[in-house]
Amino acid sequence: MERMEINARAFAYENKTMYRRFHYVLAGVTLATCLGLGACDKAKAPETALPVANVDVMAVALREVPVVFDYVGQTESSQQVEIRSRVSGFLEKRVYQEGTMVRQGDVMFVMDRKPFQAALDAAQAEYAQQKARLDTARANLARVRPLAAKNALSQKDLDDSTGQEQAAAAALEQARANVTSAKLNLGYTTITAPVTGLSSFAKKQDGSYIDATNSLLTYVAKLDPMWVNFSLSENEMLNVRTQTGNGTLKLPPLGQLEVELVLADGSVYPQRGHISFTDASLSQQTGTYLIRAVVTNATGSLRPGEFVRVKLIGAVRPNAIAVPQNAVQQGPRGAFVWTVDKDGRAQQRSVETGQWNGNAWVIESGLHAGDHVIVDNTLRLMAGAPVKEHVVPAPAANVEAGAASAASGARAAGG
């Protein structure tokens, strides 16, 4: 009886094991079948075609592109004059109003005139005395000369009379010079503006004693024309010389380089200037070359010491390539543009950009004449996607447009 129960249990266990094995085999066959059918369906699925994109395309061509260099400058008076007292004495009155425009010849200060008037009176009295002495000496010589000729008087008497007349004449000349000096000193008590310009504050107040150690009274700064000083680094200067030498940059004569000023509020100063001076030596303190421009300032709107942006206009890059701003994009590997290959498909092209020119980028490398650059509808493009081209004209060179920053201008100078 016990053996029959054991056999029955063994038979049930064996059946259960076989059932599990059969279940696993069936599941594997089913999975393989499904995978095979999926693979067949995928292989049989038709390839999805990329849609044709309508794009605006510009044909790249070599042309002459204006270059605008941008620097930071500071205005300076073309003639700033120190107003000093030429005589020592008490300052009686300040006549001008501080900070206003003064004209050449306008009275600015008045010194106490009384001591100088007294000195002039004394000098004139001395002159009158010496003139009387000269008249007496001449009259005496006129009497002695004929008597000496007749041997009525000795030669010594004639020599003494001649000497007295000459000494009196010399003393008269000295007295005349003293009168002139006294008149000048009296005139110097009225201090006038030597130039037309903007006055500064008075450094001495009424009643102050003025002598050679504190003779500075104020300044007058001439406003028209106005100087604008800016600097060019040694590297920038060398790069400009290199590029002009190899023909990649053309500069007009120095006097024909126009200067445009952009004021602190972003407005453009209406009058353009020109370069008037370049320092021949490098400043050891700053490591730069000083360059000076001259700008007319008839209205006086420019004041000394203002910071302005200086744009140099007149240089050009021959045989350059420029594309619209929206054609250049930034990617993980830098700037790139979309181009159309010979099969009519979009392709990415890495480029190296230069400075701005209006709404266009100057391309220094990566593009060649004849390339077709996509300038619009670039956001949905994929590499290899077919495109339908609509050719648009190249952007016009804009010399009036804003230039790059000073750093970009330096990079443009350095290529």
From TrEMBL:
Boundaries of every Multidrug resistance protein MdtA-like beta-barrel domain copy: 225-312
Residue stretches making up the Multidrug resistance protein MdtA-like C-terminal permuted SH3 domain: 319-377
Domain Multidrug resistance protein MdtA-like alpha-helical hairpin, chain residue ranges per copy: 120-189
Compartments it resides in: Cell envelope
Transmembrane segment boundaries: none
Domain of life of the native organism: Bacteria
All residue ranges annotated as the Multidrug resistance protein MdtA-like barrel-sandwich hybrid domain in the record: 80-215
Gene3D superfamilies: 2.40.30.170, 2.40.420.20, 2.40.50.100, Helix hairpin bin
SUPFAM superfamilies (alphabetical): HlyD-like secretion proteins (SSF111369)
Family: Belongs to the membrane fusion protein (MFP) (TC 8.A.1) family.
PANTHER family named among the record's database cross-references: ACRA/E-RELATED COMPONENT OF DRUG EFFLUX TRANSPORTER (PTHR30158)
Protein name: Membrane fusion protein (Multidrug efflux system)
Organism whose genome encodes this protein: Paraburkholderia unamae
The organism's taxonomic lineage, starting at the top: Bacteria, Pseudomonadati, Pseudomonadota, Betaproteobacteria, Burkholderiales
